[in-house]
Amino acid sequence: MLPIIFVIAAYLLGSISFAVVTSRLFALPDPRTYGSGNPGATNVLRSGKKAAAVLTLFGDAAKGWLAVFLALQFALPDVQIALIALAVFLGHLFPVFLRFRGGKGVATALGVLLALNVWLGLAALATWLLMALAFRLSSLAALAAAVGVPIYAMLLGLPREWVLASIVMSMLLVWRHKSNIRNLLAGKESKIGGSKAS
Q: Where are the alpha helices (DSSP H) in 94-117?
C-alpha cells in the first residue's frame, strides 16, 4: 500500500500550482488570464513582479524535489521511485485542483531531476541557462534541456527505470510546448521578460 499512497500523494503535491498561490499572495492577476495563460514562473514574470516569478519557480521545483527525495529516503525500488517522479510531474501538468489545466512542468521536472541525481539536474539546468542566455527564449531553452535530459541520464548510468521516466517527462515537456514550437518557427515567440500583463 505504501507505494500507492506515495504515488497519490506525489500527484496531489504536484497539483499545487505555485503560480496561482504566489499570484494571490502578491495580489496579482491569475496567471491563466494573461500572457500565454500558462500557470508557470515565466508567465508570472510577465506581470512585472520578479519576486513572484522567483517564488513560483522555487515552489514548483521544490515540490518535484520533495516527492522524489522522500521516496528515496524510504529506499523504495527504482521502478516505484520512477512512478513517483512521474506522478508529481503529471500532477503539475494536469492538476486536480485546477480542473486538470496546469503548467508546462519545466521547474517541477528540474526539481525531480535534482532529487534523482544532482548531476542530472545540474546538467539540465546548465543547458537551460546557456540557451536562455544565448537566445532569451524560455521555451527554446526548455526544449533543449528536455531533449538533453535522457541523454545525460544514460551517460550517468542511472537505473533503466529512471531513464525511462526521464524520456516520458521529456516527451511530455515537448508536447506541452507545441504552441511555443509553432511560435518559434513563425518567429513570434516572446522573449524572457519581454511583455507584461495588461
A: 106-116
Per-residue b or e along 122-159, where b marks 16 or more CB atoms closer than 10 Å to that residue's CB: ebbeebbeebbeebebbbbbbbbbbebbbebbeeeebb
Number of domains in the chain: 1
| Mean of the per-residue pLDDT values of the chain | 93
What cell numbers appear for 186 in the block?
513563425
Domain boundaries, position 115: 2-186
How many residues are present in the chain?
Answer: 198
Q: What is the pTM of this model?
A: 0.92
Do 148 and 161 form a contact (C-beta atoms < 8 A)? no
